[in-house]
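Let us work through a complete example step by step.
Step 1: write down the sequence.
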Amino acid sequence: MELLPGGGGGAPIPKKQGFRSLKPVNADMEQVLAEQPVGVDYGTLDNGLRYYVRCNSKPRMRAALALAVRVGSVLEEEDERGVAHIVEHLAFSATKRYTNHDIVKFLESIGAEFGACQNAVTSSDDTVYELLVPVDKPELLSQAISVLAEFSSEIRVSKDDLEKERGAVMEEYRASRNATGRLQEAHWILMMEGSKYAERLPIGLERVIRTVAPETVKHFYEKWYHLCNMAVIAVGDFSDTQGVVELIKTHFGQKIPAPNPPLIPTFQVPSHDEPRFSCFVESEAAGSAVMISYKMPADELKTVKDYRNLLAESMFLYALNQRFFKISRRKDPPCFSCSAAADVLVRPLKANIITSSCKGKGTIEALESMLIEVARVRLHGFSEREISVVRALLMSDIESSYLERDQIQSTSLRDEYLQHFLHDEPVIGIEYEAQLQKTLLPHISALEVSKCSEKLRTSCSCVIKTIEPQPSAVVDDLTNVVKKVNLLEEEGRISSWDDEHIPEEIVITKPNMGHVVKELEYSNVGATELILSNGMRICYKRTDFLDDQLVYQLFTTNLTPDEEDVKIVMQMAEEAVCAQDRDPYTAFANRVKELNYGNSYFFRPIRKSDLQKVDPLKACEYFSKCFKDPSTFTVVIVGNIDPTIALPLILQYLGGIPKPPEPIMNFNRDELKGLPFTFPTTIYREVVRSPMVEAQCLVQLCFPVELKNGTMVEEIHLVGFLSKLLETKIMQVLRFKHGQIYSVGVSVFLGGNKPSRIGDVCGDISINFSCDPEISSKLVDFALDEMLRLQDEGPSEQDVSTILEIEQRAHENGLQENYYWLDKILHSYQSRVYSGDVGTSFVIQDEGRLKVRSSLTPSTARLALQKILPFPCKNQYTVVILMPKSSPFKLLKSVFQSTRTNYGRKTKILVGIAGLAVLAFSLLRHSRSAQNNSKH
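Step 2: predict the structure and record it as tokens.
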């Protein structure tokens, strides 16, 4: 079946011949897959530590490191709930050799950004510490491995260390108490009911985070953190693996193992024949949804037969998802979207999970549709046509992976070895896996794939839940649907699948081929620009980063939706608007935009009343009109393309787009206007109170930015450096010094300006963090104090060096990625300095970056902070703080509490309190009266 239009000649790409010439392998089903991981230097030190070391050049001069520990929250006792996660936090803040987050500062100084390149995660079964570090200097790899060695046995748990980190852990806990977090927790407890996993979520309990003693944390660390429970993984651009193994031995080999470390116990999750049901009502939920989970023991993957079974299950999920997609596009569909996936939940347990989003009060209909489709497969199976499509998709996926095997990221290989250590998943190598799939896929029949549906019965440890913002479904409804569908299946009253007609080709009539009018080479970009006969501009850059890149442009299709399409899209849009209104963050975000940008139409929130004004036919007409004139488009293609193959396709399917006789969207960019908005000229500090199920607090501190046209290119790069400087320094103050936040983000907005070559550029720079509502205003003052200090004194030499190093390492990584080059070339076309020559535009931007880098010092950074931001910064800014809405009684209580500690207040304050009490009771009586009236 040909799904894509045929190409126009040219020799086949040699690498694809390589895949097609792969020989089939011995398909003995009982053959054991590699017990030792392939392609990696693998072993165990005398003290029990395992190691995996592999050379890999993607990205160049970088190493992806990890310390994997088979210790998670399920090992905690009742008074330790959350301690495994606290230990992970303490690792980065204090060890025997490092203190006060010096590990973070060191790693940032070598360009390993906190969060992006250095991070850790605690789960129920394990804890993993990850680093991505440069290795262009010999000592850097040794230092990074020494950091992992500190994590393994030298984490310090003093009273001061713990107190400094409680706030950050508590803020991470508070952030998890939103709608998504509450739903995830409730679902987890439902899934794991009857096992210890149900009571050991990694985030822990608030009381433990706030009060746990250092001795308790230290006891957990010393009890479970043993080298026999750990593995070090190093994948990177090394000259050889043996040198890295020697470094691991140097830093870990001298550590003496404990004489009798406790065995890591296994905790089972009991199965159940009867399905479990739950109807979650979450007032802040993004929409209505249904989830069906079928739990089962995690599969062993030891033999070729196991691998074949895994392939069959993948084909089953692919085929089922294709059906779900088609159902969601039918007239008046039961759900907006639906998909099935497999996931390992905990070490002994996996699940097949089907999830759908649906319209309000539509959960019962969606559930019935989901159950019927699985039952339909059991009764009638998949057709050979369906499976042939799936087989082709999987074959295409493995072919791409095989062809791009030299482009695998070190982080991806690191993750493979993590799975080998933590879950005993075999590592067989992409070459052998490609041979296996090529051998097995053609012989997996539709019948074999269809039999996977037997695992998705409601009698197989099934858990069914609905999520709704307002209650409509109840457990009895879910039970009745299950009984109904089971009865329909038993009686054979579910019809077979109506396989819709699929066209053999996307483009039925091939367009007339265009031709190249002009060809330009930009050697500094490594790109070629073609101007086609219809006016379209094509810029392509040939890289060896990825081999598969496809571009589709639909210029010749008029978008004319029918009534049902419009109804579905509008329904989805209305649900999205309603979900925003339920979200406590919406009022906060809307006020931020209103305050900083005024009443500009571009920033106003969309209301349901706005949707009612939309004319879908006019919208589609405008959309189609935008794609009618190919001469207004520049298409940028970056990837491993062969021009001899690509050019005929470009000329036929892009050059063949007809050019209209007259320009349709003719405009001069110098005449276009920017968005109308003006930043406030004074100080605004506001609190937005929003109804919340659980208290959340978010802060946005914002400053205006104005860049002068003459030096705009340099200043745009400078703003990028300054934003990273502010992010790093405010993080150091609010988290590392005061220990009151989890993370901070600094972002720059320069959109909305007119695209002409003249005029200054205006925008803003914003600082965002979440925190305890009680101290939000104090933390804003701390951030302002630090910014003012930087404006007055400037950053240190080390601060500037760290920022330059982080930017340089990110730049070096980007040069090896298609997305980076695509972005750079697009920006060169879209830049104000572009005047027809993308090479010149590229040079101007690159020179601007280098100029800023070479001139950035503590002094120039200080002057830039004074010039680009208001100076002093405390003279012009906006602060919006999201706070939970308090009830009248809470407000009354807080007033009484504040007066009890201040006896010197005047009598009129007491009169005011009395008046407030009368108002509160009046409001209460009125609300009760209204409720009683509504009930009757």
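Step 3: interpret the result. The longest helix spans residues 907-935.
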